[in-house]
Each structure stands twice: as C-alpha cells, then as structure tokens.
Amino acid sequence: MPDAEHDTPCGLHLFWDDAVTDYDFGPGHPMDPTRLALTKHLVDAYGLSSGPGVTVRAAPSAGDSTLRLVHTAEYIDAVRRVAADPSSSDPRHGLGTEDNWAFAAVHRASALIAGQSVAAAEAVWRGESPHAVNFTGGLHHAMPDRASGFCVYNDPALAIARLLELGAERVAYVDVDVHHGDGVQQAFWNDPRVLTVSLHESPATLFPETGWSTETGGPDAPGSAANLPLPAGTGDSGWLRAFHALVPELLAAFRPQVLVTQHGADTHVEDPLAHLAVSLDAQRIVAQSLHRLAHETAGGRWVALGGGGYAVVDVVPRTWTHLVATAAGRPVDPAAETPEEWRAEVYRRTRQRAPLRMTDGVGPDWRDFHDGYDPADRLDQAVLAARRAVLPHHGLLP
Description:
Blueprint: E1 12-15, H1 34-45, E2 54-57, H2 64-67, H3 73-84, H4 106-125, E3 131-134, H5 155-165, E4 171-175, H6 182-187, E5 194-201, E6 225-230, H7 236-254, E7 258-262, H8 280-297, E8 302-305, H9 316-327, H10 340-350, H11 378-390
Parallel strand pairs: 1-2, 1-3, 3-8, 4-5, 4-7, 5-6, 7-8
C-alpha cells in the first residue's frame, strides 16, 4: 500500500552553516560529521538548495536564554567548562563519558545546531516558509541537566519550547529514529500542549531502554506521549505498517498547529548501532507521509530535523537528501544516478565508493492495520499495545 508524494513545489527554508561540522567528538566516534557535509554536497549536487522557493539560511547560535528553555543553567555552565578543558570530564552531566566525548567546540557547535532548529521553528511559525529543514539537528537524547546518547543540547525540544513561547497551543513531535526520543518526551511529559510520538526499536534490545507503550504522559497530560517499540529485525513492511497504524490517527485527532519531525536514518538495515532492517526506500516513504500529514493536519507547517544514522556514506546523505527534496516538493527519482561530482567528493573525503543510485532497489509495501491483524505476530502485538495505551486518551477507541 504505497503512499503518494505531495509533489507540489513548496516553500522551504533549509538551515545550514559549515561550522555545524565542528560538532565532532573525534576520530573513531560513530557521530562522524562527514555525514553532514556529504548530505549538503548531495543536496547541492541535485540543485535542491537553489531550486524555486528554497532559501538556504544560517542562523545564529542559540543563546543562554534560549538554551534555558530546556536546559539548566548549571548544565550549560558545565558544557562550557568541558569545552575550555577537553581533557576533563564531568560524568554527573554526562560529559567526557564513553558516549559523549569532550571536545573544544562542544558548546559552540552544539549551540549552533540548536540555533538552526530554533530558527527553523520561528520561520515556520511566523509564516516565512511553510516548511523548514535542519538535517544537522534531531539530537533528541539530551536531558535538561546532562548529555546523553551523543546529544549535548536537545534542539528538537528547544524548537518546540520556542514555538510554545511564541504562542503555539498544540505542537506534535513525531520521531522515527531507531532510538526512543526520550529527551523530548521528558521535556514535555506533563505538558498537554505537546504530543510526542516515537516509533523505535524495543527498549529490551536498544539504548536508551525507555519508550514502552505504557509511557503515555504525565498526570496533567494523559495521552501526550505515544510510543511504539518494535521488535528487533523489523523490516520495511512491518515498520511502515506500524507507522501508518498509529501516527495518522493521532495527528488527525490532536490537530497540531505545527508538526516537528525527527528523521534518524539509523533504522536502516546497514546501520552499525541498531537492529532494524529498514531500507532507504521505506525511509523516503515515511518522509513523504509526514509531509502529507503536515498538510492535512497542521496547515502545512512542518519543521523536519535529522537525527541518528551511522552508515556515513551509504545511507545518511541519500536519506536526508530525499527528506530535503520531499520538503521542497521536488522529489528525487529513486532510480536516479547519484551525481558524479558527489561520488568524487565521497571518495575524496572517505576513500570509499559512493552508492550509485538514490534507492536500495526495493519497492516497500505494507498491509493496512485496519484490514486485519495477527494476534500471534510480534509486530502486531506491539502495534496493538501502543494503540490500546494511547488512543483512548484521544477518544479514538472505546
């Protein structure tokens, strides 16, 4: 049951500053900033950054008053201290740890990425552009007082907090990263103005070991969180079936004024840090579905962010280029060859051969959950549990 692309050209603000690649934990760390540079090169090679209705912008870094919308002043000071002495560590604040190595640009680069996401939210809210993309963002694990999971400042939460500060009354956040969007969920756990939806690998097999279907929001905001943990090994048909069994109904019921989405590419079968088996083609279909849902449920107001993804050459640049193309209403033909100049840039930077096409060569399909389910199937069990946990809070199940 493939999804149709909303392919009318759209206004898009694409946020980019070359200095975001300074978000660099160092050689050997999975969060390689090369993935960001190669994505921007591929976007440019397809002419997406200079297409009609597309504006490329560099926003200023998030200042302390903005960072404090989510993070504590003590934590921001701790990040600065570690930046001043990268040989130090501060485990209490999650800095200089096994996941979150200290580096000199840790505050500056993190605040810059956060600034791009906050500016993206401002641009969409103020009507400067219906869509905005910051594929360098999506750092969804950072907590108010500590770094976590390669994430220092939580730019999705900061973007949402800024929307609330500007007067938004309903913001929906949909996270399709392979890891649970725990930091964003925690930031708005008890806030009925924000709906957080996360589709991720089961906490039983993957960091951060949260995101069970029973996590549905705080006492003042029942149903404000929705989680659909998927069995390890879930592939295209199951992933797409699960997404469409939960997300469209929730968004239609919540009627957000803005849709914020996180598009971690680490659901891919080639990703080295997780255990789902999703293709580039299924990731593109979900981006298209969220584009359509932004138009159907949020008046077209859409802020799209990147996230995880550690197959630096083969997956991340192509996935996020499809995301940019989708947001611009100028989809790239999956069968298209990748531009020769981009392949040369990949080899120059990595000495690896670049993928030749914008597809994994599959045509994902899925069965609609409303056409029937198998109670003995682990995927369907997970979908049923998520639906039963959260939909009644929105008046969608008896």
